[in-house]
Amino acid sequence: MSFDSKDPNAPDFCPQDLSRRRFLKFGMSSFIGAIAMKQAQLMTFAQAAQTAPLAEHCIVMFMNGGPSQLDTFDPKPNTPNGGPFKTVSTSVPGLQFAETLPLLAEQAHHLAVIRSMATKEGNHERARYLLHTGYAPTGSVKHPTFGSLVSHHLGNESFELPNCININSPSFNSGFLNASHDPFVVSNPLEPIDDIEYPEQMDAHRFQNRLKMLQDLEKDFLRNRSGRSTEAHQAIYKKADKMINSERKKAFELQEEPMAIRQAYGMNQFGQGCLMARRLIERGVKFVEISLDGWDTHDDNFTRVGDLMQVVDPAFASLINDLSERELLDKTLVIWMGEFGRTPKINKDEGRDHFPNGWSMTLAGGGVRGGQVIGQTDNEGKVLSGQVSVQDVFASLCFALGIDHNHENYSRSGRPIRVVSEGQLIQPLFA
Fold this sequence. Notes:
By secondary structure, the chain is an alpha/beta fold.
């Protein structure tokens, strides 16, 4: 086994520290092979890095609980594991989705479906951490969520709106990065947004005076109590101050949209969250995540998935269509995913259990070639071809956004940690 000296999980040695005996024991051929493999990988990404970014923005739709791939993007009709849902033809000849996706099926020519995702994390929290950060959780390091990485590498500090926004529920924060890159959380897009208006009987002049007074009072306290909590406290005030005085905050005002458009997305938190994401992207926000709970379908899977897809299908389809019509899809990378999939086997409670071994993820826009399927699974859920890891996905997202996935950020203890620990570019995505 070979180790990359930049890998934070690697042992504390490097090739030049090896004694002659240890070097020979390690194996000349293995050593040279490891170097050659790494060099080839770096060359691939060096070539990729020379390409201009394909996307300027990113929207993630995250399905908390793990959606069933068999009842959405990888149906297995007429098999013991297939379940009751039939299939529906799509805008791509020969490609079929489950009948739970009739509207999105019409947008399939924009979509790339990866049917061969495989991970090792079958626990909700660990898998959710992995799918948000690209790293398995450890006790020693809190990694930044991908949205925070986008904010850090691509965001403009002077921009009036947050560069990273989460809608419906918070995900993970900016980890060892500065707390200014924490996601701004919109808990419910159907309700007025907190902290973007002056308090009653407060104008801009009085607010600035009070903000300066607060900063003066906090100087000594902050000097002696540096750390993440202090940074987060300061970041909240800075974000609020910028947004309150910005015309861009109208992105949060969904009532500006024609009712027909709002209804097309769905008059629910997820649908209106997707509409808000489009409005935020239009005004320059770099990263938006919209989440939807309820996918942990250990029992009554088919009723629950059917109900959930009545929320997802119109929102996802409207978002893709809307971005396309507004000429925003080409520069906006859109991802639909959960933390894992569900078992092909149907349990005694008419449910499906956790299944990280072979599941689906769907991407669109931002340079992604639509109308294609990557990878294949058999009727038992086993990946037959084209297996894709989370690290592969993260490396590919970085490629699309023009972020060097080999770049090293530093933890608070000074430890260098790469944006992506490993992973290969999923070349068919962009071919």
